[in-house]
Every structure is written in structure tokens, then in C-alpha cells.
Amino acid sequence: MTDRFHLDAVPIRLESCGKTFPGGSRALEPLDLTIRGGETIVFLGPSGCGKTTTLRMIAGLESPDPGGRVWFGEEDVTALPIERRNVGMVFQSYALFPNMSVAENVAYGLKVRRVERADRERRVEEMLDLMHLGAFAGRRVDQLSGGQRQRVALARALVVRPRVLLLDEPLTALDAKLRDSLRLDIDRLLRGLGVTAVYVTHDQGEAMALGDRIVVMAKGRVAQIGTPRDIYHRPTDGFVADFIGAMNRVSGQAQSGALRLGRGAFPWSGPDGPVELLIRPEDIALAAEGEEDTHLDGLVAAAVFLGDRTRLVVETGDGPPLTVDAASRSGLARGDRVGLRLDPSRLLNLPQP
Amino acid sequence: MSVTARLDPQSRDSLRLAALLAPTAALFAAFFLLPLARLFVIGGGGDEGWAVYATILTNRNHLDSLIATLLLSAGVTAVTLAVSTVAGLFLVRHRFPGHAILVAMLTFPLAFPGVVIGFMVIMMAGRQGLIGAITQALTGSKLVFAYSMTGLFLGYVYFSIPRVILTVMAAAEKLAPRLEEAARSLGASPWRVVADVILPALKPALLSAGAIAFATSMGAFGTAFTLATRINVLPMTIYTEFTLQANIATAAALSFLLGLITWAALALARSFAGSSVAAAG
């Protein structure tokens, strides 16, 4: 990647940006958020959580409720319509112009900006080469595969040197294998260009792989903002914990400074009474039934072979079944009995949503 | 064993296709090709012989009538497309109380015969018409244009709008809002979005609806007949040659010409729009 393609890293600031739709339904509670220049921020959440509304507000396709402000660097862009914000957008449905060739699609933004023809053609060619689309310049859009179309859409959005790149579920329409390869392409591109990017998805895998920071959203509110590691290892509530990755629930009994969980006892500082704790599958170790230091015994109710590992569902006879990962060659199968050892330092005690 | 079983699969398929096409082909021949051929022959069977086809194009009156009809139909098509595209897009994108009733009312003119349309034009712009009364009150002189080309033009636009507006609305429903957002994100003004995204997407629908509006205006008779006096369009000329002057050969030759020109216009539109006109028209 050459320096020529390096874009300005413009910080973005949302200032109490809420959105109430006509009819009174609240799509987004007032939100304050600063996106650092050059940062890739991912809005993650189930459908209807307000992530797309937030993206569209940054784009200028929706305006915030009165009092809300959107800043691009030092410029207040709240009143600017999208066509004057200089943003790049990539959509789930590609949204390529069907009446134009690949090169004409990419050239469109430059043509609108009245960039001189020679300059325009050079920049389009460079961008197509950067996206490995050089051979397709003259093709019609409907002659391309989904992955190629989305690369054209990226090229079209980036060639105008936008202040921010906005991606609305760009990989959702692709099949799994293409999704992985294009995700790597996007990652490489965003790091290389240094452009501020806002990425909306409902897929936690994409969010983890691409985001410098992730904003987990639920029901129009921000549930947690943090790096992928923060969000995964230190979720602040049960919703985030359940939404990102697999999570187990185990119940224990607290009594005078100790928490009894199966056969184990852990130091406990909270009040006495029943306690529900969360733990990730990878923080539960498998052992033979009844082996020393195990906390729980269980029966393998289901074993799903995933290639690199086998995901087990283990019934412990106390509370919901637990999800545990076994090594690929462990040979454990439905009906086997196992012992479970919980890593006490990994047990999470979170407020429930 | 049947005859077809002995043929190779490909000829069997062609045979089956021919059998399936036969009823349509018979109808097409009986009600289109034969009458048209007959018309062509009758045209050449008058006193002048085949020279009539040259004469109608050199006869001042006929040529004027042909040009007037073409200009009228082209004008009606252009104005109808402009009005219906704006109205159709508006109706698809805005919901308001009475929306369904308004759309239903816009399709009203489809049900009227040309005579009624002519009658309505007279009520509005005729000697006793609404516009006449208003201009009389305001300026002292009565504005009357019902019995002219202007009146005919208005009547044709009125009954062409529903056909076009319904086609435009159906096409506008299918416009992808993301395409317009993509164009805007790249800096396109609302007008550019119309020119670069909306109109190209509506093009097949506009071409097919325009072709229908054009063909209908070329051949419409009832309205012209009602407004009569000073109007010289091809269907009227044919009527005059046929009934009043009993000049059957000329009438037939003119009819053949009218059909030919309209067909050519539709074929032209079809070649622009790909196969979409064939489906719609």
C-alpha cells in the first residue's frame, strides 16, 4: 500500500444524539461517543438495537433529535445533508449502479466532484488495482460475484477520499468463505488507509476481528464500549456476556465468606445466599469423572465435532447444561460421564439485564 | 409407435413447439396479417393503382394530417411522461389520508370512451365552458380552445396519464432506496440522483408506457370526432375519406400507413428498452 492512499484521520464526536421516530418510538437513547481519528469502531447488536440508526446519523441520512450534534473534527456537520459531508458508504446490498460499468461506478463520486478526466481515470485505475479489480474495469456489474461487487463498492466509496468510511453490514449477504476473505481484505484496507471507519454488524466474529473498539448496543442503548478483549473477558452485564461468544451459567451458594459450587469452595466477599455466576467454555477444564479437584460431574448430552475441537453439552443435574470444549481427538461422545474443573479466577458475577 | 417417437429429440421438440404455437399463429394470421394484407391490396386497387402510396405522401392535406398526428402524439407522450413520472414518484413515496382514493381516481379516465373525454374538454374549454366563463369575467374576452389542436392535446394527455402513471408507480415501488443513498453519499445533489439513478431505473417502464401513450394517441378517434371542426389528424382524415368521400382506396392506404408508423415507433422503443416493452405492450 502506497502513501498516496493514506487518508486523513478525522475524529468524530456524537453529542447527545438520540432518535425518536415520528409516532413516538425511541430508536436511540441520547448517545455521547467520541470516535478517534483513524479508529475502526464497530457497532454490534441484535436487529433493532439502534446501531444502524447511529450509522445513518453519522452519514447524514437521519438527523438526531433536537439538541443532538454530530462533529467531524472541528466542524459541526449536524445540519449538512449526506451529499455535503464527504463520507463513503458501503451497504449490505452493494448498491452499485446497474446502468454503469465497474469503472464508471468507481468514477461516479469523482465525476460528481468535477475532477478532471485524466486525473479521474488515473485515480480510478489506481483504486481498481488496489482492490484487485483491474481486470474487471469494463465489466457490467451483474457479471461480478458478490465478493467482487462489494470490493467495487469499497473502491467507489474510498476513491473520493472520504472523511469517514461507513460500512452497514457489508459482509452479511456473502457466503461464509467469501465473508472470511473479504473481512481480511477490509481489515488490511482499513489499517493501511488510516481512515476513520464505522462498521455496523450483528456478527460478533466480524466485530472482534475488525474493531479497534466495539460498541455493544441493545434496545437503543449502549451496553458496553471497549476493545474486543475487554468486551469478551470483562463484560459489564449479562446481556453483553451472552451476546458475545458462548457463556455458561452456574449457580452456587454463598455462606460466610465462601462460595460453594458443586464440590468446590471459593473465597467470596459478597452477601450470603444463592449466587449465579458466568463462565466461558474455555475456562472449564475436562477431567475424568470423580478425579481430584473437580468441582462438578456431568453427562455428555450432545457432542458436536467442529474439526479443531468438539463442543460438548454437559448435563450436571443442577441448573442449565454447560457448554464445554474438548480437544479434537478426545473421543468423548454422547453418554460419556465427565468431571469438570472451573477456573475460579474466570468466574464472572454480573448484574443481570 | 407414433410418428414423433421415431424422430430425434430435437426435431420432436420443434414439432411440439410448432403445435403449441399453431393456435396463436392462426389467430395472428386471421385477425392481423390477412386484414392488413387486404388493406394493403385495397389501397392499391383504386383508380390510381399502387401510385396511391406515393400520392398520400405528396398530397398536401394528407401529409399535413400525418405530420400533425405525429407531432400531437409525440407532444402528448412527452407531456404525459413528464407529468406522470413526477406524480407517480410522489404517490409512491408519500402516504397521506385519501391516498388510495386519489390513486383510484387517477385511473378513472381509462373507463371513459373518447367521446366522453371530448365532451369533458368542451365543458372545460368550449364556448360555454368553465375557462371561457372565468376569462370572460376577468378579462372581458372569452378564451375558447376546445375545438382546436390544444383541446385535443389536453384530452389525449388526460386519458394517457392513467396508463403511464400506473406503470411508473409499479416501477417506482421497486426502486432500491440504497442506490439513491449511495449516490448521495458520493456527493450527488437531488437532481443528479434523479438523472443518474431514478430515471435510468425507470427507463424501461417509461419507454413502454410512452410507447403505449404514443400508439393510443396516433389511433384515437372518439375525442377528435367530438371536438371535430378544425382538427386534422390522421384518424379523422381516414374517416372523411372513407365515409364522406367514399374514397376507399385512399382510406385503406392511409390506414396502412398509420399502422406502419405506429408499429415502427413501438419497435424503436422496444429496441431501446430490451424486451420489457414486449411484456408490457
UniProtKB/TrEMBL annotation, chain A:
An example molecular function term from Gene Ontology annotations: ATP binding
Keywords, ordered alphabetically: ATP-binding, Nucleotide-binding, Transport
GO CC list: ATP-binding cassette (ABC) transporter complex
TM segment ranges: none
InterPro entries referenced in this protein's UniProt entry, alphabetically: AAA+_ATPase, ABC_SmlMolc_Importer, ABC_transporter-like_ATP-bd, ABC_transporter-like_CS, Mo/tungstate-bd_C_term_dom, P-loop_NTPase, Transp-assoc_OB_typ2
The keyword Transmembrane appears for this protein: no
SUPFAM superfamilies found in the cross-reference section: MOP-like, P-loop containing nucleoside triphosphate hydrolases
Domain called ABC transporter: residue spans: 12-244
Superkingdom to which the source organism belongs: Bacteria
Family: Belongs to the ABC transporter superfamily.
Protein known as: ABC transporter ATP-binding protein
Organism of derivation: Azospirillum cavernae
Automatic annotation (TrEMBL), chain B:
Domain of life, source organism: Bacteria
Membrane-protein topology: Multi-pass membrane protein
CC terms in the record's Gene Ontology section: plasma membrane
Pfam families membership: BPD_transp_1
Coiled coil: none
Tagged with keyword Membrane: yes
Keyword Nuclease: no
Annotated InterPro entries: MetI-like, MetI-like_sf
ABC transmembrane type-1 domain ranges (all copies): 66-269
UniProt-listed GO biological process terms: transmembrane transport
Major localization class: membrane
Keywords: Cell membrane, Membrane, Transmembrane, Transmembrane helix, Transport
Compartments reported by the entry: Cell membrane
Membrane-spanning ranges: 20-46, 66-92, 99-124, 144-166, 205-228, 248-269
PANTHER family: MOLYBDENUM TRANSPORT SYSTEM PERMEASE PROTEIN MODB (PTHR30183)
Family: Belongs to the binding-protein-dependent transport system permease family.
Name of the molecule in the record: ABC transporter permease subunit
